[in-house]
Backbone:
């Protein structure tokens, strides 16, 4: 995939690292000279030390033939302007960080996919890492939805019961959906009749924020 990444701060740099590792064709645009130089020295990619709010810069980056553009700066005004130019250039896939959730609709109206409040996502991940050690890979989704993995302990009410039975007993609330189960090194989609065992790791989706009390109950 031909990918343009705008911004090489901590988020942008991490994204560039992932994209390069996955063998994508990456062009980075970074207005800060030091950050641009650091990326250029670390990766064998094209780095433009320029402002992405210029249509000329995006064209130089290959905006007329790129598959996607991802905007990662901490300035929503800059991000929105870059998205607007990218839309005019006809990029098929445009994703942008939105630092203030009140601005999200402006980006969506232009046709961009958005990642809202990245600092909130990080904060929630750190909170869960400390507060809920049996919860892994926590991800916060829009409107308060969550995806995470939890490890089932010996005292969990899920043990030796099927998903269907736990749902009947309301151990698993209606707002929670168990998606997959990892057991003995195998990771599979879960069925309603599957019986949960100690040390199973469940991937869970919830519509609402899960309370600490429910997490402690389910993990045992």
Residues:
């Amino acid at each position: 995939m031909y990918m343009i990444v705008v911004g090489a701060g901590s988020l942008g740099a991490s994204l560039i690292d992932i994209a390069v590792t996955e063998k994508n064709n990456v062009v980075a645009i970074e207005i800060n000279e030091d950050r641009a130089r650091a990326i250029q020295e670390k990766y064998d990619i094209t780095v433009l030390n320029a402002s992405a709010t210029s249509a000329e810069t995006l064209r130089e980056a290959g905006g007329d033939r790129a598959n996607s553009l991802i905007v990662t700066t901490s300035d929503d005004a800059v991000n929105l302007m870059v998205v607007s130019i990218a839309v005019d250039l006809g990029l098929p896939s445009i994703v942008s960080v939105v630092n203030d959730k009140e601005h999200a609709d402006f980006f969506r109206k232009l046709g961009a996919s958005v990642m809202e409040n990245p600092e909130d996502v990080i904060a929630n991940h750190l909170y869960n890492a400390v507060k809920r050690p049996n919860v892994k890979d926590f991800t916060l989704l829009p409107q308060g939805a969550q995806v995470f993995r939890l490890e089932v302990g010996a005292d969990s009410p899920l043990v030796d019961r099927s998903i269907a039975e736990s749902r009947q007993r309301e151990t698993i609330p209606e707002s929670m959906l168990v998606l997959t189960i990892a057991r003995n090194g195998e990771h599979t989609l879960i069925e309603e009749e599957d019986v949960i065992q100690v040390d199973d790791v469940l991937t869970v989706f919830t519509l609402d924020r899960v309370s600490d009390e429910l997490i402690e109950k389910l993990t045992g």
The helical segments are 10-21, 33-42, 55-60, 76-89, 104-110, 118-131, 163-168, 212-219.
